[in-house]
Design goal:
One of its GO terms (molecular function) is endopeptidase inhibitor activity. Keywords: Acetylation, Cytoplasm, Endoplasmic reticulum, Methylation, Phosphoprotein, Proteasome. By secondary structure, this protein is α+β, with helices and mostly antiparallel strands. It has a domain of 84 residues: Protein Transport Mog1p, Chain A (3-Layer(aba) Sandwich), CATH 3.40.1000. The protein is 17% helix and 14% strand. The chain is built from six helices and five strands, in the order H-H-E-E-E-E-E-H-H-H-H. The protein has a five-stranded antiparallel sheet. A hairpin with a 5-residue loop joins strand 4 and strand 5. The N and C termini lie far apart (118 Å).
């Protein structure tokens, strides 16, 4: 509480009620937080200078107190107002730069003894509790950025928009790069057993609904779609190794019907 006694004795003649004494205490807590008073009222006046003392005329109005403060580094200004409502003082503090507002309601009788209004040793009560309330609810923190801009901690971890290939069990790994955790679809009771060939078309499994004429088990004609189809596709129209569904005969010498094939129903009917 160093300095509060000196301030109290300097303005004791202006203290005529309990709220005056409480204003004196709050003013000194603001000064200890690194601010000094410029004057009373909302508007600045000529010839003002920063001071730890309460300005002239600070206690003329018992219903409304208004003070302007500036930080010791001249980077922050704020306006403090206190309204008397019944037996309480409602404090309102606004940062003039960021317009950030904080407020606190204090019961006067809990912290000021009106019977000892001019005796510094006994006028204030529960000072530790009042100081804690002021620091937590009203006064700006020492860690606050005076410019009002919140500083974001630098994240040393590089952000990446790429999906981790090991996090998706349905993602087929790139050729030449084995998966760290290959999906296990070999168990017939696995929930992925049905449609496993569709989920893993490159796994060499049979079945599935993806039809590939070149991998369907039918006799192959040795057709290479990348070499082109005479009269239909020029060479290089189909990239090498690409899956290609032919839209016409893929060879000149496709195998014809087998003589051992079963004849169609009604084959001997002359009217067929």
């Amino acid at each position: 509480m160093a300095g509060l006694e000196l301030l109290f004795n300097c303005v004791s003649d202006s203290i005529t009620c309990s709220q005056d004494a409480l204003i004196c205490f709050v003013h000194w807590e603001i000064v200890k937080s690194g601010y000094k008073c410029l004057g009373v009222g909302d508007e600045a006046k000529d010839g003002e200078k920063k001071s730890e003392l309460l300005p002239r005329g600070w206690s003329e109005s018992k219903e409304l107190y208004a003070f302007r403060y500036r930080s010791n580094d001249d980077k922050t200004n704020f306006l403090l107002k206190a309204f008397t409502v019944d037996s309480s003082l409602i404090f309102n503090l606004m940062d003039s730069t960021t317009e950030k507002v904080s407020d606190l309601t204090v019961s006067i009788s809990e912290y000021v003894d009106e019977a000892s209004l001019h005796t510094f040793e006994s006028v204030f009560k529960n000072t530790d509790e009042l100081t804690a309330k002021l620091k937590s609810s009203l006064l700006p923190s020492k860690n606050d950025n005076p410019s009002g801009k919140s500083e974001k901690k630098k994240d040393t971890k590089k952000a990446s928009n790429l999906r981790d290939p090991d996090s998706d069990p349905l993602l087929i790994p790139t050729r030449g790069r084995p998966s760290r955790h290959p999906p296990d679809w070999s168990d017939p009771m696995s929930p992925f057993a049905a449609g496993g060939s569709d989920l893993d078309p490159f796994g060499g499994r049979g079945g599935g609904m993806i039809v590939d004429p070149l991998r369907a088990g039918f006799p192959r004609s040795g057709f290479d779609p990348s070499s082109g189809i005479p009269g239909v596709l020029p060479p290089g129209a189909v990239p090498p190794g690409a899956r290609f569904d032919p839209f016409g005969p893929v060879g000149r010498h496709r195998p014809g019907p087998d003589p051992d094939h079963m004849p169609p129903p009604g084959y001997d009917d002359m009217f067929m």
